[in-house]
């Protein structure tokens, strides 16, 4: 099989996508991918806030609820419908910013790294390109996400909630901990999100390629956009399952770390190693089942939304380029 245009050597040589006025690998292309990332991550993460709320509280206090439904019933009884959506504001803001960095910068880094190693090597070692580009993108995306993730976790893991609104919570953290309070969990966040994103993009790209090359009988270009979006959704869900497993221990650490009270004078603030010892091996896997459902659904929806937007603006769907079959 001969690969065609895995990485376009230069922007001038890049063809436009179909009838699109957006030239591949042009500034408009990267901007479109950035906007698509905002639409893919912000609304989807916000949508699963109720599930995330129960998951985060269960990670910090394992006996608080008997399950997801029991958690929702308990929260609704005590706090009403608004309580079930605790953390919605910082989730929407944080993951919109993260989505912009994650998807937009991924396409930038993938293109630049492809040029750096050359088209032939970029195709031959494409999995390495996917992993390196996604890790680079997520590193910067997490700097944007971290303050809002810290606030979200504080709100969600406190009973009653640390704050009722995003503005109230932001002001409280600034008053008690200052700016540093928003970045206390940056290290664990990188430990969670960078491997997560590496698996998310590499496994998605590989899964989509395998679906077209082994499960389907025709090249990608011979399927209509609706069928291609179905492949994007399927590849996204499979990628999401792997993501949840790889990143779960760090996710538990982030929840626990941001739930810690401010240290008193003369007492050292508990760190990552202290929390890891407290949780133990079993503790860091607490809530994995719920997170697999949440992340699998999230990842599938994100790739579906992202690719739907790309199709809307006239760009091709993500994943494997067409290959000539022998």
TrEMBL record:
Q: What membrane topology is given?
A: Multi-pass membrane protein
Q: Which GO terms describe its molecular function?
A: phosphate transmembrane transporter activity
Q: Which subcellular locations apply to this protein?
A: Mitochondrion inner membrane
Question: Which GO biological process entries does UniProt record here?
Answer: copper ion transmembrane transport; mitochondrial phosphate ion transmembrane transport
Entries under InterPro entries matching the protein: MCP_dom_sf, MCP_transmembrane, SLC25A3/Pic2/Mir1-like
Q: What is its main location?
A: mitochondrion
Q: Does the keyword Metal-binding apply?
A: no
One GO cellular component assignment for this chain's record is: mitochondrial inner membrane
List the keywords (alphabetical): Membrane, Mitochondrion, Mitochondrion inner membrane, Repeat, Transmembrane, Transmembrane helix, Transport
Ranges for the Solcar repeats: 28-112, 125-210, 227-312
| Similarity field | Belongs to the mitochondrial carrier (TC 2.A.29) family.
- Described purpose of this protein according to its UniProt entry: Transport of phosphate groups from the cytosol to the mitochondrial matrix.
Q: Which PANTHER family match?
A: SOLUTE CARRIER FAMILY 25 (MITOCHONDRIAL CARRIER PHOSPHATE CARRIER), MEMBER 3, LIKE-RELATED-RELATED (PTHR45671), SOLUTE CARRIER FAMILY 25 MEMBER 3 (PTHR45671:SF10)
Q: What is this protein called?
A: Mitochondrial carrier protein
Phylogenetic lineage: Eukaryota, Fungi, Fungi incertae sedis, Mucoromycota, Mucoromycotina
